[in-house]
């Protein structure tokens, strides 16, 4: 334990993109399995709960903080293994996700180009089953290595074990809360393959730019440009990106909504259900650009809640989100679920 610096009373707001939240009783960065086992022993000896922190881009930490040990896994190594036309890419959990995408695109490896610009770490990607512009992590995911705190052992989880669905996974199951620390993930990407384009706004953007047969690099640049137009930069204004998941409803529910809201945007999924757009629902509920105490809904994108002046409390952000959800339900009878994870709230 002598080589590991375990810090006390660290402000978590400095480690999250929302820039809100209280203090962690203890905080430590680990770089390998040996160090991880040491800090797990320390936590057990002090009877401390453990929270694993990634890039801090998809969480809202309570004002009370976290009374336990926060672990940040910082190994950011990357390796490639070619087998025929497939390349197996293994990225350590501490790597910045977009750095992984950038490197894969530069090697002309197809499968993650539409996931460009998503903030956060590689280790957080499976938790949310991150997705954008027609791609999801699960499309190229093969397996991951993790530490199971419940069983006190290292484990390998295959794709089927992770139970990926839209913005969900085994890691978000309540019974598995705090169970795993992801060490690395392995993706199966394809060499020299043209991008698969299915998302209408991305296709339209490329057409407007008169790019007929886009390369992976052109698709990545297009995604980054679109994201820049639609989303707020957390380096400028504190936020966690899209705050709510797009709700999925039965076809019958959609048909009822269309009777009153003929312009409601939607997209049918493979199972016949309809995915609505949370940002549209929030905007039509009157919240776009509105303030709530020191928190605010973005004027650029109603799906984003901001800490515009760095003065918002976590309670103010959550109260705003709760009020938005309440209003959307009262108007549309559709329930919004947060995509952002709440940490330390009772």
């Amino acid at each position: 334990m002598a080589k590991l610096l375990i810090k006390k009373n660290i402000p978590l707001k400095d480690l999250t993109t929302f820039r809100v939240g209280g203090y962690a009783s203890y905080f430590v960065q680990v770089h390998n399995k040996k160090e991880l086992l040491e800090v797990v022993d320390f936590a057990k000896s002090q009877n401390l709960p453990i929270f694993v922190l990634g890039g801090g881009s998809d969480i809202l930490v309570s004002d009370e903080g976290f009374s336990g040990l926060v672990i940040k896994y910082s190994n950011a190594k990357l390796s490639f293994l070619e087998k025929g036309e497939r390349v197996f890419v293994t990225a350590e959990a501490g790597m910045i996700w977009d750095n992984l995408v950038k490197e894969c695109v530069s090697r002309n490896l197809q499968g993650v180009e539409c996931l460009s610009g998503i903030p956060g770490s590689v280790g957080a990607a499976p938790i949310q089953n991150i997705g954008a512009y027609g791609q999801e992590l699960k499309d190229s995911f093969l397996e991951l290595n993790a530490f199971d705190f419940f069983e006190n052992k290292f484990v390998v989880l295959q794709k089927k074990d992770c139970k990926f669905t839209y913005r969900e996974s085994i890691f978000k199951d309540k019974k598995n809360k705090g169970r795993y620390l992801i060490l690395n993930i392995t993706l199966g990407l394809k060499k020299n393959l043209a991008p698969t384009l299915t998302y209408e706004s991305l296709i339209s953007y490329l057409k407007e730019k008169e790019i007929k047969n886009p390369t992976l690099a052109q698709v990545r640049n297009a995604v980054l440009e679109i994201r820049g137009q639609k989303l707020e930069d957390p380096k400028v204004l504190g936020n966690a990106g899209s705050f709510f998941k797009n709700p999925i409803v039965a076809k019958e529910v959609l048909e009822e909504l269309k009777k009153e809201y003929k312009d409601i945007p939607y997209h049918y999924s493979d199972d016949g259900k309809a995915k609505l757009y949370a940002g549209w629902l929030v905007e039509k509920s009157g919240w776009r650009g509105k303030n709530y105490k020191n928190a605010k809904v973005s004027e650029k994108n109603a799906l984003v809640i901001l800490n515009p002046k760095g003065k918002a409390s976590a309670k103010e952000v959550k109260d705003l989100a709760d009020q938005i959800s309440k209003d959307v339900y009262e108007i549309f009878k559709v329930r919004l679920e947060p995509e952002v994870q709440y940490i330390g709230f009772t």
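The CA atoms of residues 123 and 129 lie 11 Å apart. The chain has nine helices and 21 strands.
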